[in-house]
Amino acid sequence: MANISVFNIEGKEVGSIELNDAVFGVNVNEHLVHMAVVAQLANKRQGTQKAKTRSEVSGGGRKPWKQKGTGHARQGSTRSPQWKGGGVVFAPTPRDYTINLNKKEKRIALKSALTSRVLENKFIVVDDFAMGEIKTKKMQQTLNNLNVKKALVVCAENEKNTVLSVRNIYGVKAASPKTINVYDILKYNTVVASKDAVKTIEEVYA
């Protein structure tokens, strides 16, 4: 098992913790990590873009002029794409961008992302955030003490004050152990987790 240091909110080392290899010590599967990120971004897309083709725009029922003898190019409708008010060629239509991964693939991808952060020394464990009140300034000072800027803060479900204190800090996002995802783990430079959050992650994903 990997053994990493535990820090307090002042940035001082106060102990260590052993991480479960079943979650934080797996073989990193880069392909599944990539697929998980692609799927998450694709599933955010609404797919509601729509434009009308020449068969859907109103008007243009009759031929604007006779086929021959006018000196103009032949035209069959004033709603052809080259006309003002005409339809769009190959117009976009609503579609579903959803990409599905099975549960086993999602789990392996998440474990791979967490393992990569541990291997890169970008996984920091905090003894306790100790947020007795909602205080953004105090949370910012804690991150400064840990020498962290762009971070994903993972805290236990009952640490609501920590979540609210993080909310207004630029480049920092709060998450619970059950809502972490591959995209956020990779997007933010460092994962900062409380000891309770680490235990929950190991219980849920091991």
UniProtKB/TrEMBL annotation:
Keyword Coiled coil: no
Molecular functions (GO terms): rRNA binding; structural constituent of ribosome
GO BP field: translation
Annotated spans, Disordered: 44-87
Gene3D superfamilies documented for this protein: 3.40.1370.10
The keyword Ribonucleoprotein appears for this protein: yes
UniProt keyword annotations, A-Z: Ribonucleoprotein, Ribosomal protein, RNA-binding, rRNA-binding
GO cellular component: ribonucleoprotein complex; ribosome
Family: Belongs to the universal ribosomal protein uL4 family.
Assembly and binders: Part of the 50S ribosomal subunit.
Annotated PANTHER family: 50S RIBOSOMAL PROTEIN L4, LARGE RIBOSOMAL SUBUNIT PROTEIN UL4M
Role this protein plays: One of the primary rRNA binding proteins, this protein initially binds near the 5'-end of the 23S rRNA. It is important during the early stages of 50S assembly. It makes multiple contacts with different domains of the 23S rRNA in the assembled 50S subunit and ribosome. Forms part of the polypeptide exit tunnel.
Name of the protein in its database record: Large ribosomal subunit protein uL4
Source organism of this protein record: Lachnoanaerobaculum saburreum F0468
Source lineage: Bacteria, Bacillati, Bacillota, Clostridia, Lachnospirales
